[in-house]
Amino acid sequence: MSDLRTRFAPSPTGFLHIGGARTALFNWAYARRHGGSFVLRVEDTDRERSTPAAEEALVEGLQWLGLDWDEGPYRQSERGERHAAAVEKLLASGRAYRCSCTREELGERKQATIAGGGKWTYDGRCRDADHGPDCGPHTVRLRLPKEGHLGWDDLVFGPSGQDASEIGDAIIRRSDGVPLFHLAVVVDDHEMGITHVIRGADHHNNTPLQIALYHALDAEPPRFGHVPLIVGPSGKKLSKRLDDVSVQHFRQRGYLDEAMRNWLVRIGWSHGDQEIFSAEEITRLFELDAVGRKSGQADLGKLDWLNQHYITEMPRKALMDALLPFLAQRVGHAVEASDALGALVDLLRERSKTLVEMAERAAWLVSDEIELDEKAARKHLTESAAPILRDLRDGLAALSDWKAAAMELVFEDVRTRHDVGMGKLAQPVRVAVTGSAASPGIYETLAVLGREKTLARLATALERIDPAS
RNA sequence: GCUCCCAUCGUCUAGCGGUCUAGGACGGGGCCCUCUCAAGGCUCAAACACGGGUUCGAGUCCCGUUGGGAGCACCA
Length: 469
Fold this sequence. Notes:
Radius of gyration: 32 Å
Number of helices: 19
Helix content: 40-55%
Shape: elongated
């Protein structure tokens, strides 16, 4: 194992959204690719939003995606002493100073500066005031160099940076004594030995300040790699209805973890013309220099395609097991695995984009009462279809061997006797037996349903057409 | 407003000065197959934002313009 260490440091807000999931995926893939370690750290300093339940949702999401971490979850809230110590150290070395400017004063000066056409960064009023610990309510600010360039070679964006003069002396500890985000991240990343900080591009602008913090702490900055954000279909920020973009929600909608992983990794990253990547391939092929620099839109259509692809490839048993809960939810009662269901699953895999869709298409097999599509019934379960159906029922009833080949002979016989095309025969049967005008091939459908139920449903349908018979 | 970043088909992208009349994939159109729905096969349309340079030669390098995004908190 190499010394390379990456981390995923989300704030637990109740779910894992796809942007965060992709960041986690990239960190995980990069660590695995290079034989390093992947650390999970929960940034739970926001007491309002951070709950154990929220953290659990996060962990569940990561586990579902198969992103296993080597250390953690560490909690930022448990590291307050380390952060406090760092601030004291900076104060002692003169790299930081106390600032007694109040929020109100700051606001006024900021307004005035902007009104005068200037640009605002902290004006440094307390920078050389040398306030002591007993100067009253105060914040602590980092003393930034007045000149020089705070640059780094970004793993994705290449040479990046900003002039120190563009950045004001940032607050690193609030007046209530709580250290701020930038301080906490830098201290944690440094003390946890993180060598590669891979995060969303929204942090690109924060990096110069954090580099200044590393310098002030006499610490070597890690390598930074900023991955472009995922934007919504409009090209704007990701949906405000955050629930829609949580990985849990995708899971509930019947997407497979393999599909999700494959989809996420391809947003912003590519490997030649390859589209399909197993987890193993991701950990073998992923590289940050192949990550693009522009933000990408989430293409749900592609996810559907990938999902169907993985549904198609999944072993029957595993697919059936994955389907069971969705099927149970669909029909309202528990459903057990069976040979018939297994056979149906094989017939349905090419026809289903999600497990939810597959459950819809499979419901007729496992529910006693089929849901009759009225429109289809009106079209196919007609007076003129009745005699044909009747003959077919009789023919099937006489069958000793409930196999597709035998059924086909019956169908052909009925067809020629009534002189109708296959459509005129198969569609009424399909509706009678599944309730819908769409299903797998009619012989396969009947074979899966079984003799008893098929005949019963045909009888029910005939009764519906002509109750007198 | 200021700072930083980005820019190839509708979308994700390949392309790292000549092999580009720009390739792949999703999506879309058409045809075939066909008992429905799919799947599959074949096929078509679809892009280098614009303007200047540099160069024998630019999608590829440089500069502008335009358009997008991000950051400018005692949030994370």
